[in-house]
């Protein structure tokens, strides 16, 4: 059939808006998690991802890309196509990795777009249920006596469970052996099975096991006691003066990701953090949603730069590197 010039122009006029009608996001979005399923980063990503998917009208697919203390996932995200369909959720490891790793294949301060800070999470120092030490005082004495026969599980160099474990080991001056896992999900399973002795991990994954009595709780890593575990003393009040580790989380995208995608993903995150069901769940798990001023690209970018500068001299002084 022959079409006149006028009809072609008319068809094109109708066709063009239709072609652009399917605006972002037009397909599922991947949220990369640097640690194994079942761990605290995974729990938070899945809780937020489900709520964000409802706002975005698309599925947020969680991809657990484990290894090298979270640096493999960050490298993967830095190299991903910047089309708005790949994001990364990561914690303090984004700020510690440049000082920990001699050959980091990405620069956290220049190779990403920044979406938002998310939540702050306290940590808990746990022991297997049948560890002979019944409280922190006994634990100290036990570790002094047993030395490197005691195992502390963690999620790799760059993981906060490792940072917390190493800081704790230094603070008490004991020679605990560290055992790496792909995330604290599997590390917690090893603790529950009695295969390792100690684990320092975030309340977002430990609260349920503490409340069920399936692990021993020796203390929390915050300056003040937690309202979710009010009976648990802080490590600082038990003699480790100034001991404080709080885990912060941020969401990143590959450099060059369109602003529309950053804005829409960020808006969906802010809506999820305000969702009453999500907010209650995070609250029960001890997580604290960051103030709205930090729920911005600039809020995360500034915080990451400050944290990177803060950690670098501390890690260099400790002389800890990985190749
Ligand atoms: C960490 O130790 O860095 C994380 O808690 C690991 C995880 O999310 O599994």
From TrEMBL:
Phylogenetic classification of the source organism: Bacteria, Pseudomonadati, Pseudomonadota, Betaproteobacteria, Burkholderiales
Protein name, per record: Tripartite tricarboxylate transporter substrate binding protein BugD
One Pfam family hit: TctC
InterPro entries: BUG, Bug_dom1
Keywords: Signal
Similarity-based family: Belongs to the UPF0065 (bug) family.
Origin species: Pseudaquabacterium terrae
Keyword Signal among record annotations: yes
PANTHER family per UniProt: BLR1237 PROTEIN (PTHR42928:SF5), TRICARBOXYLATE-BINDING PROTEIN (PTHR42928)
Signal sequence region: 1-21
